[in-house]
Amino acid sequence: MKQTTKQIITGTFLATATSFISTHAFAESDNLATVNATNLNIREQPTTQGKVIGTVKKGTNVQVLSKEKEWAKISHDGKEGYVTLQFLGFSNGNPNVEQKQQLTINNGQKEEGIVTATRLNVRNSPALGSSMIGYVQKNEKVTVLGKANGWAKISYQGKEGYVSLEFVKIDGNTEEIKKPEQPKTSDATIKNGTQEVGTINATSLRVRSAANTSSSILGNLKNGEKVTVLGKANGWAKISYQGKEGYVSLEFVKLEAGKQEEKPVENITNGTQEVGTINATSLRVRSAANTSSTILGTLKNGEKVTVLGKANGWAKISYQGKEGYVSLEFVKLEAGKQEEKPAEDITNGTQEVGTINATSLRVRSAANTSSTILGTLKNGEKVTVLGKANGWAKISYQGKEGYVSLEFVQLEAGKQEEKPAENITNGTREVGTINATSLRVRSAANTSSSILGNLKNGEKVTVLGKANGWAKISYQGKEGYVSLEFVKLEAGKQEEKPAENITNGTREVGTINATSLRVRSAANTSSSILGNLKNGEKVTVLGKANGWAKISYQGKEGYVSLEFVKLEAGKQEEKPAEDITNGTQEVGTINATSLRVRSAANTSSTILGTLKNGEKVTVLG
């Protein structure tokens, strides 16, 4: 009887328990979830600050007991704890558990976040116009006190601050994805305003389908990329992205102040429709026939287009059910095409320097696409632009005039090219250093003259004269011409006049007293270097004058600084040099290991001291 009573009590308890579970929670078989994170932390409390009491690995099945906000209470290996609901997968889609929805998180719900931007500004209120109180660096941990309208309120240096929520990743030791916030109505649509040009100022900036952080990600923009901003509101910028509208955080878009847009050309009227093939790696489709209009999208090499009309180097095409404009230069029309009318001649204006911005750009004999192709220019090549009109640029090409599509020439702001001089007269000699990988030396001061040779980066040259962007130099015993743009002149340094010839006198034996002493072809520092002598080498001195020694060098005559030649006993002293009068003061740098300072301009005068390599001196005369 006791056993029967025990069985009845047990059965009643089990029935009651089963009823309780089905009423307040759910059947175990319906609430098994699979972990889809590599290692998911189990915490004592439903917060990222809760103590970790264990972990479960990816693929493990756990029993979900209840759900609270973004957390699930589970049972695993006899323990109960909380895990992030985001990393649980349910076989029946969603768990049959009671869930309290929370649209906004109050200050009481603290979360741990990690900064994902290189440098994120902290502001004193959730608005771009508010003052900055500091910044946080990439991977820094922040405590998020609340989130709203694309902003996160954080604890910063004992105060409250605001940062863009777009660049804060909520952390739960695994990559916890925050619950999408509900965008306000004001975020939904941004009206188009005055178009502006902006530059991305973040390592990687997400482009979204709407002006909120819960919308889908369309792609990413890299640091330094240019974008067209169509409108701005509530910390978001509406931009043109891959032919569509996208939204990015305005916090990371640097707007170019006062950028002048070029006026659109007159409308291109429709003519005979033609079929064309794109002949460029990537061709931009624009909203108007000018280079400042909005980019609607791009066309790839080989794509077919319907050409509705042509004028001034532009083709009006049918693009995604609308009209668009592309550079006619990169559209190959099929046989039987109607050629555009030749453009009027482009008059020469202020010369400018431009850089080619296309893989391969054709140079034509006239400003239209039917003229003869003179050649091609590669990406990055520099050109001199003589004039511009109707989407074409007249350039200097191989000593002649040529025409290229202006769409693919990036002009250097304010840089004007000087006309080549007919003849450059000799002036004050100067010392210059070549500042180019390889600089052509030409027979005349223009780009069509013959090339005499090349100079390497860092080579020293004697500049005989300058005019109109060219430098006349001494090259291999002759005169040559190089672009002055790539010659760095040494400030205030004038080349000394060649010394008079040193006559032979009594021969003497001397020893080199310098680490390395240059042997020159004449008794001045601008003459060519024949070679070098090492410390301790013996030389035969043929004559001396004005601080120079004429020596016998490799069967020829050479000249070295007498200061670094120690003559043997019984030497014939040079005559004292006349007094040197003061002239224009110049700054010089010592170019010897140790240079003696003497009381007079000869090698027999008293030594006052020494100067070390690299020391600066003021030259009086």
List the helices and strands and how they pair.
Layout (H helix, E strand, L loop, with lengths): L1 H23 L7 E4 L3 E5 L8 E6 L3 E8 L2 E6 L2 E6 L3 E3 L20 E5 L3 E5 L8 E6 L3 E8 L2 E6 L2 E6 L3 E5 L1 E2 L9 H4 L7 E5 L3 E5 L8 E6 L3 E8 L2 E6 L2 E6 L3 E3 L18 E5 L3 E5 L8 E6 L3 E8 L2 E6 L2 E6 L3 E3 L18 E5 L3 E5 L8 E6 L3 E8 L2 E6 L2 E6 L3 E8 L13 E5 L3 E5 L8 E6 L3 E8 L2 E6 L2 E6 L3 E8 L13 E5 L3 E5 L8 E6 L3 E8 L2 E6 L2 E6 L3 E3 L18 E4 L4 E5 L8 E6 L3 E4 L2
Antiparallel strand pairs: 1-4, 1-7, 2-3, 4-5, 5-6, 8-11, 8-14, 9-10, 11-12, 12-13, 14-15, 16-19, 16-22, 17-18, 19-20, 20-21, 23-26, 23-29, 24-25, 26-27, 27-28, 30-33, 30-36, 31-32, 33-34, 34-35, 37-40, 37-43, 38-39, 40-41, 41-42, 44-47, 44-50, 45-46, 47-48, 48-49, 51-54, 52-53
